[in-house]
Each structure stands twice: as structure tokens, then as C-alpha cells.
Amino acid sequence: MKLRMLGVAILAAGLGLGCSQGSESSPPRPDLDTLRAGLGERDELERLYLLTSFLRTLGPEDVPPTLAEIEKHRAGFDKEEVRLLMLAWTRFDGPGAFATARDWPTPWRSILVEEAMHAWGFNDGRAAPAEWEQLENEELRQRLLAALLSGWVSSHDRQGASEFAATVSNPRRRTRLAFRLAGQAKRDGPDAVIAWADAVPEDSPNEFKEAVFATAAGALAHLDPERAATWYESRMQHWYATSGLLNIAGKWAHFHDPKTLIAWIETLPIEEARENERTEAVRVAFRSWAAKAPGEVEAWLETASGGPIRDGAIDALARATADASPAEALRWAGQIEDEELRRKRRLRYSRRWFVKDPDAARAWLAGEDVTPGFRQQVLNNWPNAKRRGGAKNTESDG
Prior knowledge:
Strand content: under 5%
Order of helices and strands: HHHHHHHHHHHHHHHHHHHHHHHH
Shape: elongated
Number of strands: 0
Mean pLDDT: 88
Number of helices: 24
Helix content: 55-70%
Structural class: mainly alpha
Low-confidence stretches: 1-23, 386-398
Distance between the termini: 82 Å
């Protein structure tokens, strides 16, 4: 009951309910009693409320007694609560928080130092790398680099985080950072996404601009596909735009109207040397569309003219139905106009069918109207082909 009343009193103070109308006095500042109450609380919501009530007003003079109280309850003070402490501390003393964490005399140091670096990255990402660069232990460097970047990309300093992320040598990590930065910008709307992506220089290290544009294009297509289309068209001739169309296609088809997307992709003035971008984008779009509404794709195919776009739709539909109905997938694959693509897909789906149901796959092949050469290719492509010792025959089925 005492803790509950303390929580109510703090809430009332925070909302100004404890003051008479017209009073100019400030609500009482949470003190160590609030911290102690939070550390002793077992109700997680109440505990979190009390701890954050105290930590949000933490000042330099509060650090020593705060650490002393936390040390008394360290067995119950978890990693997430360490992060809260460090987020509060590094607002006014990032170097001090990190130095104290590094010098902590117990194994708890490992958690403290990671959360200190994360929080320092969040509150002052431009200052934290200088300390990180001085570390000699490579394992620790990599661990703290991840923590630093995790905090920095979550902050409001997207430009600084992007500049540093561009220097990261690991390409997969750079891509993940670009994705997270796009996600943060996305929370602030389309204008923020565009502003962030456009602010990254074209000459950023490791061609980071390409990763940024691709992830921003996808984020923008999720929020506003028409805006994404306009933005992409205005920049599609730049070298960094080569992957943007794929991301737009995937998000647009999943969250919005695929038919409008396909119609737009068909009109894009893509030069012949980059035509594969259009082809791949169509496949991505139809793959998403076929997965959620195969009937709509079938209806679209009834009126679609032949060519790469129709082949892409058929390819996606065949892929979407391959597990549930191998025979249907093979029927669709047989309608692909591109001879080489048709051959590859029929070989792939017949092989998957053989693994799942050999008797049914053999029955299909025996009744299928194909050339002897293609039938032999299928037999040689099945998992037990080597044991059969069948000779390969590369004759096409046309």
C-alpha cells in the first residue's frame, strides 16, 4: 500500500495535480526514496514507472548514491534497467559513464560497458566513436561497435549515424544499418525519408548511397507508393538507383494495389542496359501478389499480352502454387514463353515434386506431352539420377 501511494503521489506531482490552481511552484523532484522504492518493487510496471521517474531527472550529483543503491540490488537489476540508467547518465556525461563502466570491478562490467556505449551513441553519437577507436581488444571493439551503432541509429542524428555507418567495412552490417535508419525516418513520414536519403552524399564510402536509396525507396513505397514512384523517376538515372525499383515493387505489391504498380513499371523509361531491373521488379511484385491473391494474378493473366512481364507473372504464380499443387505449378511453368526459363522452372518443380511424391511425379512425366530429350533431362535431374546411370541429353522441348 505504501508503494502504491508513493506511485500515485509521483504521478500526481508529474501531472501537476498536487498543486492548487494558479500555483507556480514546481512539483517535487523524485529522490533516492523513489529509486529505493523502485528497486524493491516486484510489480514490473510499477517498478519501471518508479525507476524512470527517478532516472529522468538524474544529475551529476546523483550518480554516486545511485550507483551505491543499485549495487545493493544488483541481483535484480537487469540488462534493460542498466540501459535506462546509462541513457540517463550519458545525457550529461558520456565519457564518465563509459569510463566507470569499463573500470567496474566485477563481471557486471560486461553489461555496463555495452549499455554505456549504446546510450552514449544515442545521446552523443559523434563523440562516442573517439573513445571506441582507442580500444585495443578486437573482440570488445566489435561488441561495442554494434552497441554504438544500435544507439546512434535510433537517435535523431540520422546524418551523423549515416556518415559513420558508411565507413563500416562489413557490407551486411552496412545494409542492416541503412534499413534501420530508413525505419527511423519512416516514423516521421515520407518527407523525412526523402530528406534523409537525399542528404547522404553520392561519394559516401563503400557506395553507401546505393543501400540508402534502396531502403528509402522501400520505406517510401510502404507509406505512399505514388510519392515513391515520383521520387524514383526523378533519380532513376543515377548510379545508386539500381536496386530501388526492386524495393518499391516488393512493398507496393504487398501493401497496396499490385495492378497499379505493374502498370507504372511498364511505363518506366528504362534503358536497355538496365532492362533486367524492370524484369526483376516485376517478378518481385508478382511473387508478393501471387502469395496473397493468386486468383487475382490468374485473372490478370487472362488479358495480359505476352512478353517478359507476363512471363514474370506466370513464374511467380507457379512458384506460389508449387508446394500445394506441383501439377498446377508445372502447368503454369509450361506457359512461360521464354524457352530457357520454361525449361529451368519445369525441371525445378518436377524435382521438388519427385522428392515429395515420387510416384505422382513419375505419373505426371509419363503422361506429359514433351520431347524425349526433355523427358530425359527431367529424369537426369531427379535425385536418384546418378544411381540410375542415365545418360544426359540436353535436347530442348521447345
